[in-house]
Amino acid sequence: MSTEIRVPTLGESVTEATVATWFKKPGDTVAVDEMLCELETDKVTVEVPAPVAGVLSEIVAKEGDTVGVDALLGNISDAGSSDAPKAEPKAEASAPAASSAKSETVAVMVPTLGESVSEATVATWFKKEGDSVTADEMLCELETDKVSVEVPAPASGVLTKILAAEGSTVEAGGQLAEMTSGEGAAAAPKAEAPKAEAAAPAASGKDVEDAPSAKKAMAEAGLSRDQVSGSGKDGRIMKDDVAKALSAAKSAPAPAAAATRAPVAADDAAREERVKMTRLRQTIARRLKEAQNTAAMLTTYNEVDMTEVMALRNQYKDMFEKKHGVRLGFMSFFTKACVHALKEVPDVNAEIDGTDVVYKNFVHMGVAAGTPQGLVVPVIRDVDQMSFADIEKAIAEKGKRARDGKLSMAEMQGGTFTISNGGVYGSLMSSPILNPPQSGILGMHKIQDRPMAINGKVEIRPMMYLALSYDHRIVDGKGAVTFLVRVKEALEDPRRLLMDL
């Protein structure tokens, strides 16, 4: 008897998902509610549990496939039924030793890179030709304009041929390498790399597993295991060992490097490190320079007394979080204040298209977010129609997706205005760069207590500098100053937002 595994309900307005990872393979025994696979949607990651206990007899939707709600993912057979693939696990287990097993060539393909992403750069190979690999072991890492993508081994065997070297550009669905599984997989490592095979057992009588961070560092540096002395238990190589080996290599004379960098002293050249820019960093650099070259960019400044906003937040933050399930931050106040100001100064929310000015009767707010990979600007659409709670929820959700590298290109396009909060990093004052084709960006900064003259008396107030960078081709100085003053007024008296004043 067979039980179907189907795609569960994915959430409101979500109709499809991508099969991210299968945690079981055909022939594996599964228990009720044991996690079988993981699906990814535009909003969340969904785990699919086993509906019954038995044996996973078939996988219908493979990793990388796009599936709709209630689509068939696979089948589970009763442990004792004829549908359960009992013979396959034994055949796989005996493959390395059985002379009758046949070798099979397995293609390593570029996985799905994400919506509107068509190509990637091969950043690092963690395995080399002739290395033995196990199923799902990481083979290489790809870089796109947005995220890094790890490519696991589709099967156990030997990596026989690398078709896309490090630094090469590959397209979605293209082939990266070839593997051999079966009988050929057992023989290939000995034939192609006998020294590497013999080196590991010689170090100790045990099968020593090096630290994953050390493996990655060795792969990036192009070092083999026998070039690094392990300081860990039983000769295990640690990340520090790789760093020491690299330092020793750099201390050797490097005439070629010195020749290419004539102005740099040889001692300095030996201590330098050259790292290729990631595709995301290249995109950021290109777009920022385009903004400077294209727009007549100018920045105007003001300061805002945050007393009233902080008091309002402290008064209602607990009730707000209890009712809406999200914390009340400052970003929702600034977003509301900007929407209020954009209505009065629509030029800041417009863009230039050739010789036309395109005015937007809506506000799609970009919220700049720093991630380990670089700066990204997810867009919250129709923010002018949203409540404080909706804004805070959207900012939290977009921020998490940005940090996880799961934003689609569509989520970072179409913005009409941007807010950048450098204050979270301690910035007191800065001039933000426009996010083309937008005509304005607001820079928030650190809140700092400063003495201020209030009604003829000196008082300590929490102050923040604001900076508005704008495209002077479309926004006049009067409009830019008016916009910033309206933001200041709305924040210093939040009641103005309620009465649209």
Automatic annotation (TrEMBL):
Transmembrane segments: none annotated. GO terms for biological process: L-lysine catabolic process to acetyl-CoA via saccharopine; tricarboxylic acid cycle. Forms a 24-polypeptide structural core with octahedral symmetry. Part of the 2-oxoglutarate dehydrogenase (OGDH) complex composed of E1 (2-oxoglutarate dehydrogenase), E2 (dihydrolipoamide succinyltransferase) and E3 (dihydrolipoamide dehydrogenase); the complex contains multiple copies of the three enzymatic components (E1, E2 and E3). Residues 80-104, 180-236, 250-270 are annotated as: Disordered. It is an enzyme of class 2 (transferase). Residues 209-246 form the Peripheral subunit-binding (PSBD) domain. E2 component of the 2-oxoglutarate dehydrogenase (OGDH) complex which catalyzes the second step in the conversion of 2-oxoglutarate to succinyl-CoA and CO(2). The keyword Acyltransferase applies. Belongs to the 2-oxoacid dehydrogenase family. Keywords: Acyltransferase, Lipoyl, Transferase, Tricarboxylic acid cycle. One of its GO terms (cellular component) is cytosol. PROSITE patterns: BIOTINYL_LIPOYL (PS50968), PSBD (PS51826). Pfam families: 2-oxoacid_dh (PF00198), Biotin_lipoyl (PF00364), E3_binding (PF02817). This is Dihydrolipoyllysine-residue succinyltransferase component of 2-oxoglutarate dehydrogenase complex. Residues 92-104, 181-205, 250-267 have a biased composition (Low complexity).
